[in-house]
Specification:
Blueprint lengths: L4 H36 L7 H5 L2 H27 L28 H5 L1 H8 L1 H31 L7 H5 L2 H27 L21
Helix pairs in contact: 3-6, 3-8
Amino acid sequence: MKASFFRRNGLSIVVAAMMLAAWTAQAITGHAAHNQELAEHGRDAMGWTAYIGSGDFWSATFENWESEFLQMGLYVLLTVWLRQKGSAESRPLDEAEEGGEPTPEHLQPKAWRRGGVVRWLYGNSLSIAFLLLFAGCFIGHLLSSWRKSIGEALEHHQPVETLAQYAVDPSFWFESFQNWQSEFLAVLSLIVLSIFLRQQDSPQSKPVDAPNSQTGS
């Protein structure tokens, strides 16, 4: 019997729903917090539509997205060359253990069968996609935070920075680095904890009866 649509796509559906729920909650609470700050300065509240289009909202959004895509892009690339003994997140130390039966040619993706540049792009498409998403979110974060800084400067009757000036402003880089370090810490935790700890039936974990020294899942 053919599996249902949810059975075939349940993981992505549930995670996407969780992401949208959290993003909606971010918008609701961010709007309330922003209006609370405006009230403290004796200013009128900002409407929902205005807030959703504001630099304040998109700066916070892109700031978090950029760190996620940077983490995943670098992690995908680093796991190509580097190993961690005993970690389920690492390729085996001995490449001969990676074996497996080759996929019949008629089942291989068309992009892979074409060869040349197309094959190279397809073979590296995951890391390329993540790093392009990171670049897009980084630019979005920069532009949104710059818009936010302009509003704050005008509010306090201070000079407005140009985009080039803001791009080297410590406050912008502080926003980025505080998220980057937390993402790298999360990846480090997964790499190291998967050496000693298990989660039954999870593909992110080694089998529960596997020795700590076993590398790969």
